Amino acid sequence: MMLFELLPLFLQINALWIVLILVSILVISLIFNFILFKWRSSVLRIYSGKKRRVDRHLTYPRQYPCSWYRICDSDEVNKGQVKHICALGQEMVAFRGEDGVACVLDAFCIHMGANLGYGGTVVGNCIQCPFHLWEFGTNGVCTKIPYSDKIPPNANIFAYPCVEKYGMIMIWYHPNREPPHYDAISVNDIDDNTNTFVARGKYKYPNIKMHLQEFAENSADSQHFGPLHGTMIIPWTEILIPFIKIDHTASFALGYEKHIAYFYDTAMLKIFGEKYPKTKVDASIKFYGPGGITLFQFDGEFGRLYLFHCHTPTDYTCLDVEFLAFIEKKIPRLLSWYIIGNWIAQWKRDIVVWENKVYKRAPFLVKTDGPIMKMRRWYKEFYVQKEEAFDW
Ligand code: FES
Ligand SMILES: [Fe+2]
């Protein structure tokens, strides 16, 4: 067969290839464009979202409510140690003298402003400033100026009212530096039964971008329990267990003392729609003030657990959280691990909401929403000035 006789066949094959190649190019370019379009629109969406985004932090009260706050753990300041602390929009210094007494002072020296948290040292029961070696006692009073016989009577650094208990150092905060309006937390059950209750671990969760008031409101917001806390989770994880639901019965009440409020929750497992009363756990949460330190109490057939839930604001809308557990000795470790791990896993489910929401000063509530406004009226008492938040 001559070559020219093959030409039509060759041309036919080539034409087929060309069509195939063209179709492929078309398909590839369509896919590419589709991906590009998707990518661009998602980028644009993010961009336009950013452009439109409200500064949600400004919608919250720009204040730290008056309260006792956990400022650090006892074991972070051993005898002779100094610790620099940033909390409540302030810089502070904690130290423990030779006598074992811990205290918290303003970090800046009254003399010329050196930061006692950087280079300050413990001398006896005082802290010595690294700059000109002035010394201050646990009450902030200047006890020594190395090059002066006289100490001016008002040479004091502000000392925060301080209480050390349950493995934590607590201070009273008031923006006008008024003395405590009420006592720091004390739990008779733990104080009186030191052989029954034992400290069993702590759990830190720093830097949550939320305002302290959100935590208090959450307990009065009874309608969020079903959607956010109604499914069983593997303790300490975010893994949901299907078919096992948690039935919540929640209520909120104000205490006799005006700085105290209670939140009660009875939780029971519901497996394939059937409730199991044996799984019932009663939890009560006692607010000692606006939520700086709250106390969870779990009661069941197994015994009693206490969990201090402490929030320390580092900024108006940033919290360091720490849980401290005190548990009846007879409760097996595995069970306490399970109960607390479950509680903390459920608490964590709120974080994504807290970290992205705005504060609605006039929320659009319905009758069955829970006593949110009652909680707000109670909470307002812990602010010194009128709320000056940006109205959203
Ligand atoms: S700045 Fe502290 S002693 Fe001078
Ligand atoms: Fe919640």
Automatic annotation (TrEMBL):
<dbReference type="InterPro" id="IPR045605">
    <property type="entry name" value="KshA-like_C"/>
</dbReference>
<dbReference type="GO" id="GO:0170056">
    <property type="term" value="F:cholesterol 7-desaturase [NAD(P)H] activity"/>
</dbReference>
<feature type="domain" description="Rieske">
    <location>
        <begin position="68"/>
        <end position="171"/>
    </location>
</feature>
<keyword id="KW-0479">Metal-binding</keyword>
<dbReference type="GO" id="GO:0051537">
    <property type="term" value="F:2 iron, 2 sulfur cluster binding"/>
</dbReference>
<comment type="pathway">
    <text>Hormone biosynthesis.</text>
</comment>
<dbReference type="GO" id="GO:0005737">
    <property type="term" value="C:cytoplasm"/>
</dbReference>
<keyword id="KW-0812">Transmembrane</keyword>
<dbReference type="GO" id="GO:0046872">
    <property type="term" value="F:metal ion binding"/>
</dbReference>
<dbReference type="InterPro" id="IPR036922">
    <property type="entry name" value="Rieske_2Fe-2S_sf"/>
</dbReference>
<keyword id="KW-0411">Iron-sulfur</keyword>
<keyword id="KW-0408">Iron</keyword>
<dbReference type="Pfam" id="PF00355">
    <property type="entry name" value="Rieske"/>
</dbReference>
<keyword id="KW-1133">Transmembrane helix</keyword>
<comment type="similarity">
    <text>Belongs to the cholesterol 7-desaturase family.</text>
</comment>
<dbReference type="InterPro" id="IPR050584">
    <property type="entry name" value="Cholesterol_7-desaturase"/>
</dbReference>
<comment type="pathway">
    <text>Steroid hormone biosynthesis; dafachronic acid biosynthesis.</text>
</comment>
<keyword id="KW-0560">Oxidoreductase</keyword>
<dbReference type="Pfam" id="PF19298">
    <property type="entry name" value="KshA_C"/>
</dbReference>
<feature type="transmembrane region" description="Helical">
    <location>
        <begin position="15"/>
        <end position="37"/>
    </location>
</feature>
<dbReference type="GO" id="GO:0016020">
    <property type="term" value="C:membrane"/>
</dbReference>
<dbReference type="InterPro" id="IPR017941">
    <property type="entry name" value="Rieske_2Fe-2S"/>
</dbReference>
<keyword id="KW-0472">Membrane</keyword>
<dbReference type="GO" id="GO:0008203">
    <property type="term" value="P:cholesterol metabolic process"/>
</dbReference>
<keyword id="KW-0001">2Fe-2S</keyword>
<protein>
    <recommendedName>
        <fullName>cholesterol 7-desaturase</fullName>
        <ecNumber>1.14.19.21</ecNumber>
    </recommendedName>
</protein>
